[in-house]
Amino acid sequence: MNTRTSSLSSLSDLFRPNNPRRLRSRDLSSTRLHILKKEIQTDTHLITLKELYSLLGTDPVNGLTSDKARELLEYYGPNMLTPSAHLKWPLLLFKSMCTGFSVLIWLGAVLCLGAYVIEITAKPNPSHDNLYLGCVLIGVDVICGLFSFFQNYKSSKIIKTFNNLIPMYANCVRDGVLTRNVQVRDLVKGDIVEVEIGDVLPADIRIIESKGFKVDNSSLTGESVALPRSNTEGTENILESPNIAFFSALCVEGWARGVVVCCGDLTALGRVAGLAARLQPAPSPLSREIRRFMRCMSAWALSLGIIVAAASLSLGYPFIQTTIFVIGIIVANIPEGLQPTVTASLTLTAKRMVSKQCLVKNLETIEALGACTIICSDKTGTLTENKMCVRNIWVWNKKYSVLDKDFKSTTQNDAACIAFKICASVCSNAVISTKSDVRGDASEKAILSFLNEYDDPMSIRKRFPKVAEIPFNSINKYQMSIHFDTQSSKYYLAMKGAPERILSRCDTVIFHNQDIKMTNDMKDVANKAIENLANTGQRVLAFADLILDAKEYPKNYKFDTEDINFPQTNLRFLGLVGLKDPPRKEVLFAIRRVRAAGVRVLMITGDHPATARAVAAEVGIATTSACRVVTGDDLRNMTHDLLSLTLEKHYEIVFARTSPTQKLQIVEACQEKGNVVAVTGDGVNDAPALRRADIGISMGITGSQVSKQTADIILMDDNFATIVTGIEEGRKIFDNLKKSVCYILISNVPEILPVFMFILFSIPLPLGVMTILCIDLGTDMWPAVSLSHELAEQDVMARPPRTSDPLVSTCMLNLVYGHLGLIEFAAGIFAYFVVMAEHGFYPKELFGIREAWDNEAVSDVTDSLGQEWTFNERKELERICQAAYFVAVVITQVTNCIICKTRYNSFFQVGMKNGVLNMGLIFELFIAALVCYVPGVNTFFRTYPLRLRWWFLALPFSAFMFVFDEFRKYCIRRHKFNGWFNKLTYY
């Protein structure tokens, strides 16, 4: 006893506000996280109250003294939730701008600015192109970084949402005086508090005395069932102990007095809040892919830079000029448009999903949902309707299903059913408001709603006014009430509760409209009926009544519910009621689709194992008898390795009676096997698992504010079937992102190779820095983003989840750098040479001419026709050639965009149905014309008004590109050449 209690005291020391162990803030937060992941280990609910008072140094009547309470408050700190060590917003902003692909863009910006600094120190009239490019790259990074910052900053406010669950004031006894306005933050362990109906529990308390006390733990457990709490023996698991009421629970009935056993961070709510705030979400598959791609691109750019440096130095270029070349080749390898394209594509998909009742808070989780391999689903409200309903009525050896069409006609003349309706109407505290809204306990609400549909329970209550009541409690497990029958002037006793408690008190039963003696065989039949109803996941309640003798209990008889002076045995058994939270109609089909897509579905619930198993069978999670049911007690006795082995060995698993830390353990065990895990939840208890999962999914209607704050996705209709839509959208967006990335990378080739030719063959620069910028962040942007509007391929939900299919694969790079990119480069360099030749510079004259061409002092460079060109004339011709090269790239990029619409199917199968893409292609050509022909704009981008015929120079290459790609896809579909194209280019 002392070990575990003293261990709790040492934990309290660790959570003291003044950091007694002098740990760094991050280390302290990490240590606290490690502790909070463990199950609560205490025996404050198992020891006697006398021992507890002695341990806490308190008195059950007078409470703590004010001096003692002040001393404890100063030592342990206030009764509130302590936020974890989060980054300050400037550091969070800096981190948001320097993660993922943005690091590569920052590198490009720094290199551009470095190249500009070198130029202004080495040249009398330096170009400002690198300055402009550097500033634009910084702008791209800042915009994308700010977007990411706002997403992260929102999620850092989780503790504030938890604090909204905490009341401001409490009723506390100190120095023998009950004070009703003590601030909750000033409560300490050992305080005596009183709670009445409508109050929110100000701390974790052990019940001293109570009457009809019930609490709604839905904020913690997600199960909206009123639970009785009283001074009784505790159970081993404190979370299910009937003598403990938890911080933030709502008192829905009765009153109670209790002693505070836990405050602040170590309460059940505090532990959940601490876990949710301190856990770091797993990086999304997309962010991991982008980091991988960034490393590959960095290595590729650096390798090319080294090659260019070695070649330049060997060709005799000065060191400063070589440095500028290396910077240029590295910057040319950076696809500047990729990050804004990915962000824009995900944003558009998120907006589209809102119309499908799916609100996306974290953009990257859209794609992560498509890669999901396991869904850990809550039961109540997600798979079920979160609404208790009467499903069956069993009266002597007859079972009536409420769903039968002839239910009303078959029961209206049955004496047992008539008696049951009377008993159920009066033995209930649920009420019907003026707006036909039923209020009360979930089970009582369901029964009263059922009665209201087939009868008039309010009229029955008027006929049988209540005179006495014994409310339901966890010890008796029944509710009994006495009513005066105004018609017969006799007292009527009604009783309902656990079937085993009711049956043991019954002596007669209604059989064929007559009261007969109940035999043991009859009780066996009733017990069999109870078992059958329970096995289908129904909650079973039994009903009994007794008409009291008018001579023995005359009018105005005083019934005493404390010292009972009326019979509680020899009752008449009426029947059983089966209550159920029905599964959503669309869930069965949704789970079939999810499983057909290779996604495994696990149920994790706080409900009873039998109920959980029955619901799992109904919705298609448990399809065979081999489905394993694991309870919270089983999990406590499992090692980490045994849990992993269980998850690996059993495909169908239902977890029941789980705690928040256990749900978190299950999620982490799944992730350790390399799974991408989605978690659904609606309660505060789900917050840690939602936070840790790859995709946290909260319910929009029944979900708590905490779960919504913690989750990445909110289902506005609380419907599991909406997740299927999300998976389909996630898979579609990944496919379309691959197309967008391929489209963007292809233009990298005609941007890189001109720089190589400029350096290695010493020709005038075919494509300038500003035109590269115009392609990456201008003409390519709309078409790249518009590819996200492409429809999903037919087999998108028939494929298994992607596990080894990267965003940028070797096959894509083969296609980009070895096939389509080279065709685009050929189109651009052809246009460049044609324009040069038309002005007198044949290709053979251009090789080796760069030094004289770029020398401002040389004014007599001779072309192939013997004409001399001044520096300004040469630069004007260079602008014309660069404009022709730029236009050729744009024309081939139009074809490239059409090609990238599909990865497998022929273009003729999908057509040009994507209106956004069609507009994007027109926009691309419009921007190209704008850049070439608008004065001022063409000066800024170093272009020139082109003759009309030069626009058609790239058309043969575009046609060849289209025909080649159709042939390639045909070979892929038919596995021609032994699948050579499949292995080489099918990305």
UniProtKB/TrEMBL annotation:
<dbReference type="InterPro" id="IPR023214">
    <property type="entry name" value="HAD_sf"/>
</dbReference>
<feature type="transmembrane region" description="Helical">
    <location>
        <begin position="297"/>
        <end position="320"/>
    </location>
</feature>
<dbReference type="Pfam" id="PF00690">
    <property type="entry name" value="Cation_ATPase_N"/>
</dbReference>
<feature type="transmembrane region" description="Helical">
    <location>
        <begin position="807"/>
        <end position="835"/>
    </location>
</feature>
<dbReference type="Pfam" id="PF00689">
    <property type="entry name" value="Cation_ATPase_C"/>
</dbReference>
<feature type="domain" description="Cation-transporting P-type ATPase N-terminal">
    <location>
        <begin position="43"/>
        <end position="117"/>
    </location>
</feature>
<keyword id="KW-0812">Transmembrane</keyword>
<dbReference type="InterPro" id="IPR018303">
    <property type="entry name" value="ATPase_P-typ_P_site"/>
</dbReference>
<feature type="transmembrane region" description="Helical">
    <location>
        <begin position="883"/>
        <end position="904"/>
    </location>
</feature>
<dbReference type="InterPro" id="IPR001757">
    <property type="entry name" value="P_typ_ATPase"/>
</dbReference>
<dbReference type="InterPro" id="IPR023299">
    <property type="entry name" value="ATPase_P-typ_cyto_dom_N"/>
</dbReference>
<comment type="function">
    <text>This is the catalytic component of the active enzyme, which catalyzes the hydrolysis of ATP coupled with the exchange of sodium and potassium ions across the plasma membrane. This action creates the electrochemical gradient of sodium and potassium ions, providing the energy for active transport of various nutrients.</text>
</comment>
<feature type="transmembrane region" description="Helical">
    <location>
        <begin position="752"/>
        <end position="775"/>
    </location>
</feature>
<keyword id="KW-0406">Ion transport</keyword>
<keyword id="KW-0067">ATP-binding</keyword>
<keyword id="KW-1003">Cell membrane</keyword>
<feature type="transmembrane region" description="Helical">
    <location>
        <begin position="916"/>
        <end position="936"/>
    </location>
</feature>
<keyword id="KW-1133">Transmembrane helix</keyword>
<dbReference type="GO" id="GO:1902600">
    <property type="term" value="P:proton transmembrane transport"/>
</dbReference>
<keyword id="KW-0915">Sodium</keyword>
<dbReference type="InterPro" id="IPR059000">
    <property type="entry name" value="ATPase_P-type_domA"/>
</dbReference>
<feature type="transmembrane region" description="Helical">
    <location>
        <begin position="97"/>
        <end position="118"/>
    </location>
</feature>
<keyword id="KW-0472">Membrane</keyword>
<dbReference type="GO" id="GO:0036376">
    <property type="term" value="P:sodium ion export across plasma membrane"/>
</dbReference>
<dbReference type="Pfam" id="PF00122">
    <property type="entry name" value="E1-E2_ATPase"/>
</dbReference>
<dbReference type="GO" id="GO:1990573">
    <property type="term" value="P:potassium ion import across plasma membrane"/>
</dbReference>
<feature type="transmembrane region" description="Helical">
    <location>
        <begin position="130"/>
        <end position="150"/>
    </location>
</feature>
<keyword id="KW-1278">Translocase</keyword>
<keyword id="KW-0813">Transport</keyword>
<dbReference type="GO" id="GO:0030007">
    <property type="term" value="P:intracellular potassium ion homeostasis"/>
</dbReference>
<dbReference type="GO" id="GO:0005524">
    <property type="term" value="F:ATP binding"/>
</dbReference>
<dbReference type="GO" id="GO:0016887">
    <property type="term" value="F:ATP hydrolysis activity"/>
</dbReference>
<keyword id="KW-0633">Potassium transport</keyword>
<dbReference type="InterPro" id="IPR044492">
    <property type="entry name" value="P_typ_ATPase_HD_dom"/>
</dbReference>
<comment type="subunit">
    <text>The sodium/potassium-transporting ATPase is composed of a catalytic alpha subunit, an auxiliary non-catalytic beta subunit and an additional regulatory subunit.</text>
</comment>
<dbReference type="GO" id="GO:0005886">
    <property type="term" value="C:plasma membrane"/>
</dbReference>
<dbReference type="InterPro" id="IPR006068">
    <property type="entry name" value="ATPase_P-typ_cation-transptr_C"/>
</dbReference>
<keyword id="KW-0740">Sodium/potassium transport</keyword>
<keyword id="KW-0739">Sodium transport</keyword>
<dbReference type="InterPro" id="IPR008250">
    <property type="entry name" value="ATPase_P-typ_transduc_dom_A_sf"/>
</dbReference>
<feature type="transmembrane region" description="Helical">
    <location>
        <begin position="948"/>
        <end position="967"/>
    </location>
</feature>
<keyword id="KW-0547">Nucleotide-binding</keyword>
